[in-house]
Amino acid sequence: xxxxxxxxxxxxxxxxxxxxxxxxxxxxxxxxxxxxxxxxxxxxxxxxxxxxxxxxxxxxxxxxxxxxxxxxxxxxxxxxxxxxxxxxxxxxxxxxxxxxxxxxxxxxxxxxxxxxxxxxxxxxxxxxxxxxxxxxxxxxxxxxxxxxxxxxxxxxxxxxxxxxxxxxxxxxxxxxxxxxxxxxxxxxxxxxxxxxxxxxxxxxxxxxxxxxxxxxxxxxxxxxxxxxxxxxxxxxxxxxxxxxxxxxxxxxxxxxxxxxxxxxxxxxxxxxxxxxxxxxxxxxxxxxxxxxxxxxxxxxxxxxxxxxxxxxxxxxxxxxxxxxxxxxxxxxxxxxxxxxxxxxxxxxxxxxxxxxxxxxxxxxxxxxx
Length: 369
Known about the structure:
Layout: H1 2-13, H2 18-23, H3 42-46, H4 49-59, H5 68-71, H6 84-91, H7 98-106, H8 112-119, E1 138-142, H9 151-168, E2 171-175, H10 183-186, E3 191-194, H11 204-215, E4 219-223, H12 236-242, E5 246-248, E6 256-262, E7 275-280, E8 284-285, E9 295-301, E10 322-329, E11 332-337, H13 349-362
Parallel strand pairs: 1-2, 1-3, 3-4, 4-11
Antiparallel strand pairs: 5-8, 6-7, 6-9, 9-10, 10-11
């Protein structure tokens, strides 16, 4: 009997992920201690066998069945930017079962092993970052992605920004480690650039470090996918920092030529024409960022492209469809541009000018306005 027990225990410890989970650090990751619910990231339900079974029992849908990029449990995975509601919507499931499923999920205990599994997509690695010499602005290019990682756009953006840094005399370091978001490391930089970041990537202490950095005058630049998640688990990020939540993008066709209109009264419009046309994946937002004080640099002419989402839903914002804007966050500066899915956009002349001028603006010191 004892020998059988020892062998069984050894077999359990040999299962993939078990030994690693016992040795993994328990970080201060968001939702670490939250009860299971229909509001949990789908990935957290997939990581727990009882939660997976509850979903299947109540909805009749096995949540682990689907394309690997949607139901994977290791980052990057689309499952980290969905809840079961969105997943059921995509799979054609019965949303009326959600209240019963919520009750079933909340009855599942959250164990230490569950907390460790939830935290494994975060990190607390403080990278050693070497900045080139010179007097140009100090920039941190960040590309840790836990959600949807579109490799071509991420690589094209990194290459374009690296080339800009050489051309403009910027001093830039690159990292994919969330541990870079600590007061000491951030103090070395005038601005941080989020390269198509998708998914929740910062622990609670890292979130606070970014918020404090901006309040004290740091700069923040974000591109395209950095505001393109269907679900967020950090309300401050879309609502207060970016200033708008993603609604969707056209799918029929996904990439279209459209007319981009420049607000010539914006302080960053000096090097831009009044308008231009280009092809990209065009985002719509649930609210207009002007409502939270954004100063819109670029708008999109909706009459120049079709606006139906994945399921045929309209994605109209009307005559005022913001595409890129600036905001003041405390003493800090924020810029976001929805341009940037297609790699070609990072060599498009006007889009390059936008990035060059806005990065320089975000890294500037002094009163934001």
